[in-house]
Design a protein that fits this description.
Blueprint: H1 8-12, H2 20-33, H3 37-44, H4 53-70, H5 77-102, H6 107-135, H7 139-166, H8 177-180, E1 186-190, E2 199-204, E3 207-214, E4 217-222, E5 236-240, E6 244-248, E7 255-257, E8 263-265, E9 274-280, E10 283-287
Bound molecules: FE2/S2 (inorganic) cluster.
């Protein structure tokens, strides 16, 4: 089916470089607000295993969709005002999580994201005005502002969908690894060709792998960062007190345990696929347990 022509300019938002100065200012403000990094990780959703922004979106949008229905029902003014205010209050943490994720995206995603945010801020302002109008007894004007707000957040929601589904922000970028890697043990190469205690990249069956050797022990992860596909072998090798050797992604600073792929620092929320490795003679072989 052909894409609606009216929607084509939305995809072009990704290329509007004129938005970049606004993006830069907004990004520096967001990153200053969400310090320290532990707070940023909670807002990304690292402890929850995926971004929490989509979950929080449910509260304001659910409330405001209900307001639209209640505004058509005589005698439901009190409930409509209550839900209007509930939506405004819950929009605050929702926006904070969304902006935190946005601050660690590629520029094309950030251009779309800044317009998404502007529409949602407009929506919140209209619903705030609606709440005050209703409280002042001006139900008609309150309803008018609420329906205008619904239009703004609906447009913002459409852009949120573009960000999530077309631009794949927030998605796990390693989900396909088990589908593309063959089952069973696969040869990776000679052990002696692997550098000692250094990040190295090897490709097995077309799959880029991050390889880390300590003597005859070899740890292997997908080399594609689960956040936005950054090349982990170009990152920084570190040492976590509890998790041991770790790698920091060069693109947005996610940190993963090299031994088990666990996320030690966001913005990534999905762990790296971990390959089992064995040394047979002098040849390293790898196996992805759930592959094929
Ligand atoms: S690609 Fe973003 S942290 Fe790795």
């Amino acid at each position: 089916m052909k894409e609606l022509r009216i929607l084509k300019p939305i995809a072009k938002l990704e290329d509007i470089a004129a938005l970049d100065p606004i993006v830069d200012v907004a990004k520096s403000i967001v990153l200053a607000v969400v310090k320290p990094r532990a707070l940023e990780d909670v807002l990304h959703g690292v402890p929850f295993g995926h971004p929490i922004h989509p979950l929080l979106v449910l509260f304001p949008t659910g409330a405001w969709a209900s307001v639209a229905v209640l505004d058509l029902v005589p005698g439901a003014e009190r409930a409509a005002r209550l839900l209007t205010g509930f939506g405004v209050l819950t929009a605050v943490p929702t926006a904070l999580t969304g902006e935190t994720d946005w601050a660690r995206l590629h520029i094309q995603q950030q251009r779309v994201g800044i317009v998404h945010a502007a529409l949602n801020v407009t929506g919140v302002a209209l619903y705030s005005g609606s709440w005050f109008a209703r409280r002042a007894g001006n139900q008609g004007f309150g309803k008018l502002l609420a329906f205008a707000g619904l239009g703004a957040i609906s447009a913002g929601g459409y852009l949120g969908g573009h960000l999530s589904y077309r631009q794949a922000s927030g998605a796990n970028h390693t989900e396909d690894v088990p589908h593309r890697f063959p089952s069973g043990w696969q040869p990776l190469g000679a052990l002696e060709d692997l550098p000692e205690r250094q990040l190295a990249e090897r490709t097995v069956e077309g799959q880029p792998l991050l390889v880390f050797r300590r003597g005859r022990r070899v740890d292997v992860l997908s080399n594609v960062c689960s956040h936005l596909s950054g090349p982990l072998h170009e990152g920084t090798l570190g040492q976590d007190q509890a998790a041991g050797p770790c790698v920091e992604c060069p693109w947005h600073g996610s940190v993963f345990s090299i031994e088990n792929g666990e996320v030690l620092q966001g913005p990534a929320t999905s762990p790296q696929p971990v390959f089992r490795a064995r040394v047979t003679g002098d040849v390293v072989e790898v196996l992805l347990p759930n592959a094929g």
